[in-house]
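assembly run, all chains below
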Amino acid sequence: MNTRSAPSGLDARPESLSRFLHGLPGVDEVGVAGRAAGLATRSIKQDSKRWAIDTAISMVDLTTLEGADTPGKVRAICAKAMRPDPTDDSVPRVAAVCVYGDLVAVARETVGDAVHIAAVATAFPSGRASLEVKLHDTRDAVAAGADEIDMVIDRGAFLAGDYDLVYDEIVAVKAACGTAHLKVILETGELRTLDNVRRASWLAMLAGADFIKTSTGKVSPAATPEVTLVMLQAVRDFHVRTGRRIGVKAAGGIRTSKEAIRYLVLVNETVGDAWLTPDLFRFGASSLLNDLLLQRQRMASGHYSGPDYVTID
Amino acid sequence: MTERIEVRKTWKLYVGGAFVRSESGRTFEVNDATGAFVANAAKASRKDARDAVLAARKGHLAWSAATAYNRGQVLYRVAEMMEGRRAQFVADVRVAEGVDAPSAEQQVDAAIDRMVWYAGWADKLAQVLGTNNPVAGSYFNFTIPAPTGVVAAVAPQHSSLLGLVSVVAPIAVGGNASVVIASAPRPGPAITLTEVLATSDVPAGVVNLLTGDPVEVMPWLAAHADVNALDLTGVDDADLAVALERDAAGTVKRVRRAASTDWEAAPGLGRIRSFLEMKTVWHPMGV
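ok done. output:
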């Protein structure tokens, strides 16, 4: 594909989604793996590492998505989101708290307007419900105070080739979101191939996603450098063709600062430093924040810290 | 008949139940007592120490959750495996310390016997060190020993096997995990001991063994916030020992001080006791 060509009316729906998506160039899986592995060897030390750690903290969507979530637990992670390290007020706030729809009100009450509240909606994580239910789920979360909605695509329909259904669903959910930002979860662990990841990324962006997100965190593999790289490439190409900047959220399976910094390198080298902001790149994570804090403490104190010095959740 | 090509062993670190090279890629030459080259051993860096502490923390969770009886069985298994490798240990000790065969055999036998001795203590510590404490009021209370956690230890520099076993076993028997720096000039028997540990049902990470320079690595372990205690037995340099104690104070670690010890003598419970926390539980009694 010649990504340098003039914008070709992509703000409108392509006449045939199937033809457009299958017209995208195939992904060179070996090349992507090699590129991701090559970038992972970049050495980020000292001041760069300090900057990267703080940037990564500010990009975290602090997430709790368990059946056992209680209002108390949600309040606890909200407190952590606003002040990640109680012993150090120079630590930036995280980007958002990510919870199930019924706990949005609790979260909003706790954080006020200090951080965003993201709610997973549309029958998360499977997405197996009727459109009516999904739209109701979305409106419910927005009404409760969510300003970001993480929706899942219908992977069954996508894999069956029913791209129109997936597209229409995203459009409808986007409309239901109102002013709330829409993140579209591709669940790349279920899409089988990187070609599908590229197609799903384009499909979501064409349908109006503000963010495309790798995974629910409930399926393994979740975020990997390879799928994130393919999604970043799609975002870059989309920007070239339409001038619109779409965000990317890598969610699930990122647990260490080292991995997080590798993702920042991927972002910088693929879409450029304009994307190194919480408005355009996020980490969906829970345990990652603790590791970032431990690394931060290590750099501040000069000695290794330990899990006794951060909160459990 | 053609001559066989020599099969030379690379001496590796033992971290989290795996035999790994140093993250730094460095090695150092180990010589025998006469100064002849023996092998290249991995030279641990501060990052290897950090990885070892992570592994030890995981190992501690599994090991401290095991029953005391089970820990005793596993340590006895270590002794069984040492017995099976007796000839190898004798050869290692002879190379490392330059002693004659009877003297090396004596040290190896003493090391195996010491492992058996410590194994036997695993399920007796609570009875011997624990207490029942009558108190005034409608309570009863009792005190039981609990493991301190992750212990960073420097093995004796001279007694390459008996000294090492005498440091590692008492830490492990109470349910602690350890990061041990082997004798810097004589790591050979320690390498064989890691192979014994790897085949003895000791959970991964309970004992992690680093080879290299304690002067380089120990300060990182002494200041590491996730290390709960230090055993400075093998630190011969008094200034280093003081510096390490000072580093350890920052996170209020238990420290067992550097000491020259007669390893042949009966050890007593002192070493075990050094790495146990006495936990007292108050129990309401019916009025």
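The longest helix of chain A spans residues 225-242.

The CA atoms of residues 62 and 313 of chain A lie 10 Å apart.

not gonna interpret more than that til we talk
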